[in-house]
């Protein structure tokens, strides 16, 4: 065994090289970086701690190579490690939900831009909450706010509740299992949603990491990708407080479809904000005339 000593240990360098080569052969980008992340996860350390390691025992070696095999099969790293960062939060992940992505942070940035007064937001609703990332990020910024996360998946609602506890925000929110706003009776200063928005015919062309591992129900937006938006915009007039805003994540090219849906529901587009890649990602709406 390359790099092994008589005590049954192996130096991290050759082990990382072996893992990176398996990932490279599987066609993955950044194989060396991903191998380091997976070895740090197995060793329960960070990348700095990994640099200080001189050896890896055989149990950890086996766990690392198992993780490498899972990643080589295009299972997302966030599912292998069970963790993902979002905003300033470290969140638990599972295949019950989409993995939080940096693009979705655009919605939180949009909220901060339009409601810079931290006392101006007292209630937040997140429809299709998944990990709870949007709601919990908002609550971390608006210290006087209370929120509710809703997800049709019982496993997702339970995961979001665990993340609320782990982030110390459980006393300020509730996570419930329901279909969109069907169980909600109340008005909110902010309504978030990152709904399914991939047109059904495009699902097969997604990257295998997404197509084969993330929940299809959280991706499939129907024939034109707009099914969820039709339901959500119709519900907003009974959910938004006076001067409240809705902030929805959208897919590529969907900014052109949102004004008509908003008008039909008595809403108007307040702003459209792009993510770091310059792609319109967050649509902000309010009741017409507010």
UniProtKB/TrEMBL annotation:
It comes from the Bacteria. Residues 110-198 form the Methyltransferase small domain. It is an enzyme of class 2 (transferase). The keyword Transferase applies. Substrate binds at residues 194-197. It catalyses: L-glutaminyl-[peptide chain release factor] + S-adenosyl-L-methionine = N(5)-methyl-L-glutaminyl-[peptide chain release factor] + S-adenosyl-L-homocysteine + H(+). S-adenosyl-L-methionine binds at residues 128-132, 151, 180, 194. Its EC number is 2.1.1.297. PROSITE patterns: N6_MTASE. InterPro entries: DNA_methylase_N6_adenine_CS, HemK-like, N5-glutamine_MTase, PrmC_N, RF_methyltr_PrmC, SAM-dependent_MTases_sf, Small_mtfrase_dom. One of its GO terms (biological process) is methylation. It holds the Pfam family MTS. Keywords: Methyltransferase, S-adenosyl-L-methionine, Transferase. Methylates the class 1 translation termination release factors RF1/PrfA and RF2/PrfB on the glutamine residue of the universally conserved GGQ motif. Belongs to the protein N5-glutamine methyltransferase family. PrmC subfamily. This is Release factor glutamine methyltransferase.
């Amino acid at each position: 065994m390359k790099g092994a000593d008589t005590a049954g240990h192996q130096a991290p360098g050759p082990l990382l090289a072996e893992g990176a080569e398996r990932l490279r052969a599987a066609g993955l980008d950044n194989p060396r970086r991903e191998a380091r992340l997976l070895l740090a996860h197995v060793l329960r350390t960070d990348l700095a701690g990994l640099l200080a390691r001189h050896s890896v025992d055989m149990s950890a070696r086996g766990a690392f190579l198992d993780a490498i095999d899972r990643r080589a099969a295009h299972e997302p790293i966030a599912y292998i490690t069970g963790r993902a960062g979002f905003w300033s939060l470290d969140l638990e992940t599972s295949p019950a939900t989409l993995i939080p992505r940096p693009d979705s942070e655009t919605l939180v940035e949009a909220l901060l831009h339009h409601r810079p007064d931290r006392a101006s937001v007292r209630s937040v609703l997140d429809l299709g909450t998944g990990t709870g990332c949007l709601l919990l990020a908002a609550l971390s910024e608006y210290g006087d706010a209370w929120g509710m996360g809703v997800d049709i998946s019982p496993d997702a609602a339970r995961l979001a509740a665990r993340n609320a506890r782990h982030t110390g925000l459980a006393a300020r929110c509730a996570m419930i299992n329901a279909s969109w706003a069907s169980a909600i009776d109340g008005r909110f200063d902010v309504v978030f949603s990152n709904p399914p928005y991939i047109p059904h015919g495009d699902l097969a062309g997604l990257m295998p990491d997404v197509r084969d591992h993330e929940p299809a129900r959280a991706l499939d937006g129907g024939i034109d990708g707009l099914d969820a938006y039709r339901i959500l915009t119709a519900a907003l007039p009974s959910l938004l407080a006076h001067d409240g805003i809705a902030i929805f994540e959208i897919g590529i090219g969907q900014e052109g479809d949102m004004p008509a849906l908003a008008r039909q529901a008595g809403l108007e587009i307040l702003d459209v904000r792009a993510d770091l890649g310059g792609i319109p990602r967050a649509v902000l709406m309010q009741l017409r005339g507010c």
